[in-house]
Amino acid sequence: MDRANPFLMKYWGELGLSAGDRVFVPLCGKSLDMIWLAEQKHPVLGVELSPIAGQEFFSENDIDAEIRPEGPFMVHQGGDIELMVGDFFNLTQTHMRHVRGVYDRAALVALPETMRQDYANHMADLLTDGAKILLMTFEYDQEKMTGPPYSVSKNEVRKLFESKFMIQELESRDLIEKAPGMQRAGLQSFVQSIYLLEKLDY
Ligand SMILES: C[S@@+](CC[C@H](N)C(=O)[O-])C[C@H]1O[C@@H](n2cnc3c(N)ncnc32)[C@H](O)[C@@H]1O
């Protein structure tokens, strides 16, 4: 996308965060949503496997960045945005200091089914009680189209997160009318859902 995600802008306030609260963007790619979050005065921590995405994010946005090794990561730091190039599963609670919010767009749904429970468990281990996640998913007939993005149903979201998070559905809407590519693939519906998750004390 060449601008911030409209659903991020619509629902970010639901997390009730304050300026200065640090936010985490898992599997961030070179998403411009990180710029929008930094503009809301949140220090941003992203993690992304691709070194190319790490470099291009800063060069394409004219942000001077310094690069330093940190354990298994190469950390690109520019202004209030810290992008860790490496594997999400290598992050520890130490990396997540002061993180109060998470923006999961095209992260959970980028992973195949066999990895999604590990992703949810690791996310739960990383976050402190009361931290919130804005989660966006898609649900469609996986028989008709292979992912990514993969189809992740409401039941699956419940199964993945309910033992450690309170789950609130903020919106669910069928986007098929605006998705000719999905129609050509034979899909009759392509439902985007947006959830607010809150980490419980467990
Ligand atoms: C579909 S893209 C989404 C990027 C971004 N969230 C956005 O909204 O544009 C998924 C990204 O996850 C990254 N990725 C996949 N597995 C990862 C992992 N284990 N750790 C870090 N990044 C990973 C991929 O390299 C890819 O850039």
Give the DSSP E fraction (strand runs of 2 or more residues).
25-35%
End-to-end span in angstroms?
37 Å
Mean pLDDT: 96
CATH architecture: 3-Layer(aba) Sandwich
What structural category do the secondary elements indicate? alpha/beta
Ligand inventory reads:
S-adenosylmethionine
Low-pLDDT stretches are none
Which bin fits the share of residues in helices? 10-25%
CATH topology assignment: Rossmann fold
Task: Summarize the helix and strand pattern as letters.
Answer: HEHEHEEEEHEHEHE
* Tally of DSSP helical segments: 6
Instruction: Give a quick account of the main beta sheet: strands, pairing sense, barrel closure.
Output: 9 strands, mixed
**CATH class bucket:** Alpha Beta
Molecular shape: globular
What do these coordinates show?
- The structure is a single chain.
- This protein is of the alpha/beta class and 202 residues long.
- It has one domain (6-199): 3-Layer(aba) Sandwich (Rossmann fold), CATH 3.40.50.
- The protein is 25% helix and 29% strand.
- It has helices at residues 6-11, 33-39, 51-60, 113-126, 154-161, 180-184, and strands spanning 22-25, 44-48, 66-70, 73-78, 81-85, 99-104, 132-139, 165-174, 191-199.
- Strands 3-4-5-2-1-6-7-9-8 form a nine-stranded mixed β-sheet, with helices on both faces.
- It binds S-adenosylmethionine.
- S-adenosylmethionine (SAM) binds next to strand 2.
